[in-house]
């Protein structure tokens, strides 16, 4: 049987491998505390859940691909309050089924067919979906290393030929490093995009999980004509299973997405959209979740530092701790060693070649589990 060569040449998605390792550990009788995958265990706010229930009717038709007007209004209102950016809900926003599917398919929408703009730039380490989606769209993928000495920001001067670039992917606050980009960085990127005519695709799923001051958005770059921002309720509102996010961008890009998306049927169910209106319109539950992540962060961070495991200073946001493995041990070996003691982490190598030498702790276990994990780590590190 003939399959897509892009599919057959790809390695198994790294977190599928992690799931297999967890199954084997459980079968061996090991009780796990899972810092491996970024799926929040914080409860979804009761008002959001009630709005979901209230949104159910006896019969639900197909959801429109451009989303409910009320949801687009709620998203525009949140962006205005949070970032001081005014968006037209009719022409600059489209709701999405979470952000993963929109990120994966984006290159299919904007890559041109004549080969003149055939490159997509991603960062390494980084979210693998950006690269995989570009490859399925037939793009050449170029990788920019995220190095600690540059605050885990990409060295933009390392791109040799901007004229071929169709999309530059950014992700700040960053998964996995926890780094934050300043507004001045986005302004520089917007200038480059205008000079060389490419789109800046900014994955901002972790914009609300911060511990010092609210991070900037690429939408605040001043010139938004080539800025496309992706955000989601998954992390902000602990709604991973709801699958609800949005894309915000210039009218031409949003018009193209509205033309593309009916073909692939990717719109949240109407009752999810009703719940999403409540989520984007209310901040108290986000403040509570951020405080909970802060407490868990301090529990784990304290024991790591006590045992000499270093977390870079740039790791300032997200639900992740990006932890350097001491003594030259590989990230996979370190993860396997901790797994034998019931602590699940993600090897940095799963997130790119430049992730080697680090482990990613996703602070999703409960506070009590984090406290118990800290006790285990104090004994085994």
The average pLDDT score comes to 94
**Percentage of helical residues?**
40-55%
Structural class based on helices, strands and sheet pairing: alpha/beta
User: What ranges have pLDDT less than 50 throughout 5 or more consecutive residues?
Assistant: none
**Strand percentage:** 5-15%
The spatial strand order of the largest sheet comes to 2-8-7-6-5-3-4
SS element count, helices: 13
Radius of gyration from the CA trace?
Answer: 21 Å
Record field, number of beta strands: 12
Question: What's the short story on this structure?
Answer:
By secondary structure, the protein is of the alpha/beta class.
Write the layout of secondary structure elements.
Layout: H1 5-9, H2 14-27, E1 33-34, H3 46-54, H4 69-83, E2 93-96, H5 100-110, E3 119-124, H6 128-136, E4 140-145, E5 165-171, H7 183-196, E6 199-203, E7 227-232, H8 233-236, E8 245-248, H9 251-264, H10 270-281, H11 284-306, E9 320-324, H12 331-339, E10 343-344, E11 346-347, E12 358-362, H13 367-380
Parallel strand pairs: 1-10, 3-4, 3-5, 5-6, 6-7
Antiparallel strand pairs: 2-8, 7-8, 9-12, 11-12
Helix pairs in contact: 3-10, 4-10, 5-6, 11-13
Top keywords for this entry?
three-stranded antiparallel sheet; globular; alpha/beta; 381 residues; seven-stranded mixed sheet
């Amino acid at each position: 049987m003939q399959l897509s060569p892009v599919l057959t040449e790809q390695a198994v998605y790294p977190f599928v491998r992690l799931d297999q390792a967890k199954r084997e550990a459980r079968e061996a009788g090991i009780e796990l505390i899972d810092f491996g995958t970024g799926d929040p265990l914080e409860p979804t706010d009761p008002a959001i859940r009630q709005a979901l229930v209230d949104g159910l009717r006896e019969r639900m038709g197909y959801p429109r691909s451009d989303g409910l007007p009320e949801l687009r209004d709620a998203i525009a209102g949140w962006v205005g309050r949070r970032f001081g950016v005014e968006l037209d809900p009719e022409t600059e926003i489209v709701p999405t089924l979470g952000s993963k599917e929109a990120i994966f398919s984006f290159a299919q929408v904007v890559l041109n067919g004549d080969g003149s703009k055939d490159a997509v730039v991603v960062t390494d380490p980084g979210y693998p979906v950006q690269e995989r989606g570009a490859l399925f769209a037939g793009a050449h993928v170029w990788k920019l290393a995220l190095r600690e000495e540059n605050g885990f920001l990409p060295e933009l001067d390392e791109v040799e030929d901007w004229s071929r670039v169709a999309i530059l992917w950014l992700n700040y606050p960053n998964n996995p490093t926890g780094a934050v980009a300043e507004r001045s960085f986005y302004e520089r990127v917007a200038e480059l995009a205008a000079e060389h005519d490419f789109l800046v695709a900014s994955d901002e799923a972790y914009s609300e999980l911060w511990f010092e001051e609210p991070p900037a958005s690429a939408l605040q770059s001043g010139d938004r004509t080539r800025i496309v921002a992706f955000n989601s309720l998954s992390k902000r509102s602990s709604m991973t299973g709801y699958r609800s996010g949005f894309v915000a961008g210039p009218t031409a890009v949003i018009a193209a997405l509205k033309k593309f998306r009916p073909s692939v049927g990717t719109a949240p169910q109407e009752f999810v959209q009703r719940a999403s209106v409540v989520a984007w319109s209310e901040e108290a539950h986000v403040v509570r979740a951020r405080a909970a992540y802060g407490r868990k962060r301090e529990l784990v961070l304290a024991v790591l530092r006590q045992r000499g495991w270093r977390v870079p200073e740039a790791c300032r946001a997200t639900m992740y701790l990006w932890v350097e493995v001491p003594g030259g041990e590989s990230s996979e070996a370190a993860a396997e060693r901790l797994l034998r003691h019931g602590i699940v982490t993600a090897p940095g190598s799963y997130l790119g070649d430049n992730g080697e030498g680090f482990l990613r702790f996703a602070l999703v276990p409960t506070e009590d589990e984090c406290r118990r994990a800290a006790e285990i780590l104090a004994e085994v590190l």
